[in-house]
Design a protein that fits this description.
With about 300 residues, the chain is of the alpha+beta class. The protein has 14 helices and seven strands.
Length: about 300
């Protein structure tokens, strides 16, 4: 796994900052959200990231309000901010959920002002939550979470504050099949990302993952979550009513979830050895990750 991890970290679309975000969300958040800088450096080292890269990346994440830094004597530790905790909680729901929940037919709409920046922090977070640009400066997501979206807008303090509303469309066909939402939702990009993930990790289906060392298990788990998170960033999170049949996203999530659950025990033991923290595998936040994947179902039946 060492060679695989180094080759993975040398991809042009991989950065120390992005991997640290994955480690913070997948590993640090369920352990209380606080971690020593020295421990982060140790967790990032197997990917080939040196302490300077880790320090620089964490400085950026402080500026982006994901974490806060605290000096304790000569040591430094980082804690997730309330904003970071809420974003990682939202990410948990999208990354580790095995199946798309039932849809009530409601859409959430966000109306930005005419001069809004298409690369603004708000737009980036809307896209992460499955929003796509329905028409210029109007973003839509197929769910009715108006309250949650309004809270996001308030947390980001976007000015002027956009209007957030719920809507129901009587004719879904023109909207989804070749219509404006289908064209702007990025479904093709999400499909390509999921296919890349399946091709990249297909080897895990025939590998003896339970024999991996703790460090290698942690490497594989982090790589899987990172690539799945990137695919989910491109996914408009459409309900099954609006998706193609035999959607590749389902196969990708099942593959990632099966491998994740196979290495989770060994990977957490490695984290414990690095951080000195105790992991409770029965913690609800951990126990519900990827529940319902093929291997999990088979294991429960045996």
């Amino acid at each position: 796994m060492g060679d695989r991890a180094r080759a993975w970290s040398e991809r042009t679309d991989i950065s120390a900052r992005s991997v640290l975000v994955t480690i913070l969300g997948d590993t640090v958040a369920p352990l209380g959200g606080t971690v020593w800088l020295t421990d982060l450096i140790a967790l990032a080292a197997p990917f080939g990231f040196n302490d300077r890269l880790v320090r620089t990346s964490m400085f950026r994440l402080v500026g982006e309000r994901w974490v806060v830094n605290e000096r304790v004597g000569r040591r430094s530790r980082y804690s997730l901010t309330p904003f970071g905790r809420e974003e990682f909680a939202e990410a948990d729901a999208r990354i580790y959920r095995s199946h798309t929940p039932a849809w009530d037919g409601l859409w959430t709409l966000v109306f930005l002002d005419a001069g809004a920046d298409p690369d603004s922090e708000l737009v980036r977070h809307l896209r992460w939550r499955g929003f796509a640009e329905l028409t210029r400066n109007v973003y839509a997501a197929p769910n009715g979470d108006v309250a949650g979206t309004g809270q996001l807008v308030d947390r980001l303090r976007h000015d002027p504050r956009p209007l957030v509303a719920a809507a129901r469309f009587d004719e879904l066909g023109p909207l989804a099949n070749g219509g404006p939402f289908r064209e702007t939702s990025g479904l093709a990009a999400a499909e390509a990302s999921y296919r890349d993930l399946v091709d990249r990790y297909r080897w895990t289906t025939s590998a003896a993952l339970d024999r991996l060392s703790g460090k290698d298990a942690f490497l594989l788990r982090t790589m899987l979550v990172h690539d799945l998170r990137r695919a989910r960033l491109r996914d408009p999170d459409l309900p099954s009513d609006l998706l193609p049949t035999q959607w590749i996203g389902d196969e990708a999530r099942d593959l990632a979830g099966s491998a994740y659950r196979a290495v989770t025990g060994a990977s957490w033991r490695f984290v414990e050895s690095v951080t000195g923290l105790t992991v409770d595998p029965t913690d609800p936040q951990l126990a519900r990750r990827f529940v319902g994947t093929a291997r999990a179902v088979a294991a429960s039946a045996s």
